[in-house]
Design goal:
binds molybdenum atom; transmembrane; five-stranded mixed β-sheet; 19 strands; alpha+beta; about 500 residues; OxRdtase_Mopterin-bd_dom; binds the ligand Nc1nc2c(c(=O)[nH]1)N[C@H]1C(S)=C(S)[C@@H](COP(=O)(O)O)O[C@H]1N2; Sulfite Oxidase, Chain A, domain 2; transmembrane helix; Immunoglobulin-like; five-stranded antiparallel β-sheet; Ig_E-set
Length: about 500
């Protein structure tokens, strides 16, 4: 095996181990990956999401691994006489790691110890093996064996260090803190979900999405690990009194529970990025009123521990009729780590990228001009209310069903407005009304079903929703950028 590759293994193993000691999120490899995501041009990012879907991050990590391996191997090959090219490469790797770690807002300066450990270990191992290698080439007795032994020892040591780091990180991760939170009992529970709220037996999703099935969208390469005891939320900017909350400050307040359907702006027509949960937390408007929002404030600029940011209209965040939340619970449990533990924002009626900051740690009351959030700098819109949409869940595309009466079922949503009507049509036939499920509240999806007569052969079925403001979904197709897709969901099936 190449000298450079062995030294690379040692560098990564050491970095991972030290990261577990100083800060779980400081592992140099992951920090560099996160930095790479931030620096990736939008077009490439959109391409990666389209092509690899939720595997986009895995592909990035593997791609980074391949590049690092090639560079390390080349460094080894270029260092036949002098170790300088190899040392330069490891210094370069280490510095990239240091910069990536320093740029993360959630990491203390001590976190640079992780990439520094990588740099020092990589360079030291490289220098050592290089010396042994030179001796072997000059035919010094037993030196060949020494090189092999040293190489194998280093690789084994790197493995042990990486595994040890992984184990150590596990003992200090957010999951153990989450398990210790205990039950979150809302003072005001959400009304129970009536039995007729979904048509799951007919092929729609269940009304509440189990946490493990709830869609997940974020730019974090590794799920940020924040323990409740370490978390705090700073509320500042255009307010009369700056406030800092600890987890217990939020937990000890009277908690409310609200049933809310969340949607991602990246959801294509017919896509999966829509889910519903009972969120438990406190009213975001209450926190803002207690801090005293100054006149002229427009934007609530929220920052996550991983540096991701979002901008929400202050008016939406404060409107009691909308019920925006700082949520700490989801479907009867503390927030799952991947959904933002210890705390996140949820604002009914707005796409997640302008409202739903996970692992939220900073709220700044400001103007639109003063701060620009993560996706705004990447061509997405400043204001992004969720668009009225509907989706066919049954039959599945390209299914074959018996001819005659065909059942069609699905979901529709128009958060903060409410769904008034859903219609379906076969081929270019007339629109026909679907049956709607009982309405839980206007911030949640509504399920629908219909029965249509079809002749044997191939067909298409489409659906469209009308919301309570009287707007009927346009059939005109628009892509997700900049503020959400439009068009009717249409699927093909065969009767016969
Ligand atoms: N920290 C952080 N919060 C985030 C995001 C992110 O990338 N990072 N993505 C947002 C987007 S685009 C959406 S749609 C919702 C998704 O929340 P979920 O993963 O819990 O479904 O989270 C929002 N909050
Ligand atoms: Mo999103």
């Amino acid at each position: 095996m190449s000298l450079g590759v062995v030294a690379l293994a040692a560098a990564l193993g050491a970095g991972h181990l030290v990261a577990a000691l100083v800060s779980v999120n400081a592992s140099p490899y992951l920090a560099v990956g996160n930095e790479a995501i931030d620096l990736t041009p939008v077009e490439l990012k959109d391409f990666a999401v389209r092509t690899f879907g939720t595997y986009d991050k895995l592909v990035l990590l593997l791609g980074m691994a391949v590049v690092m391996l090639l560079v390390a191997a080349a460094a080894g090959a270029a260092s036949r006489r002098t170790p300088v090219p190899g040392l330069a490469v490891f210094a370069g790797f280490g510095l990239v790691g240091v910069v990536a770690v320093l740029r993360r807002p959630d990491l203390d300066v001590v976190a640079v110890l992780a990439p520094v450990a990588s740099l020092v270990t990589g360079a030291a191992v490289f220098a050592l093996l290089h010396r042994l290698g030179l001796r072997a080439r000059h035919g010094v007795d037993g030196s060949r064996r020494a090189v092999l032994l040293a190489g194998a020892g280093v690789v084994a040591g790197a493995g042990v260090a990486a595994a040890g780091g992984q184990w150590l990180a596990g003992t200090r991760d957010a999951e153990s803190s989450r398990s210790a939170v205990g039950p979150l009992v809302p003072a005001r529970a959400a009304p129970p979900i009536p039995a007729d709220a979904d048509f799951a037996k007919l092929g729609t999703p269940t009304f509440l999405t189990p946490n493990r099935d709830f869609y997940r969208v974020d730019v974090a390469l590794s799920v940020p690990q924040v323990r409740a005891e370490d978390w705090s939320l700073r509320l500042h900017g255009m307010v009369d009194r700056e406030v800092r909350y600890r987890y217990s400050d939020i937990r000890d307040r009277p908690l409310v529970e609200r049933t809310i359907t969340m949607t991602c702006v990246s959801n294509e027509v017919g896509g999966p990025y829509v889910s519903t949960a009972n969120f438990v937390g406190v009213d975001l408007g209450d926190l803002l009123r207690e801090a005293g929002v100054r006149p002229g404030a427009e934007q609530l600029f929220s920052t996550s521990v991983d540096g991701w940011t979002s901008g929400t209209p202050v008016a939406a965040a404060m409107d009691p009729a909308r019920g925006a939340m700082l949520a700490i619970g989801m479907n009867g449990e503390p927030l799952p780590v991947e959904h933002g533990f210890p705390a996140r924002l949820v604002v009914p009626g707005l796409y997640g990228y302008v409202s739903a900051t996970k692992w939220v740690t900073d709220l700044e009351v400001t103007t639109w001009r003063a701060r620009q959030a993560y996706w705004l700098r990447r061509n997405w819109a400043e204001r992004a209310p969720i668009k009225t949409q509907s989706r066919i869940d049954f039959p599945k595309g390209f299914a074959t069903v018996p001819p005659g009466r065909v059942r069609v079922a699905g979901i529709a949503w128009a958060q903060h407005t409410g769904i008034a009507r859903v219609e379906v049509r076969i081929d270019a036939g007339p629109w026909q009304d679907a049956m709607l499920s009982g309405e839980v509240n206007v911030d949640t999806w509504r399920m629908w079903w219909a029965e249509l007569t079809v002749s044997p052969g191939p067909h298409q079925v489409s659906c469209r929703a009308t919301d309570k403001a009287g707007y009927t979904q346009t059939g005109e197709r628009a892509g997700t950028v900049p503020d959400g897709a439009t068009g009717w969901h249409t699927i093909s099936f065969t009767a016969g």
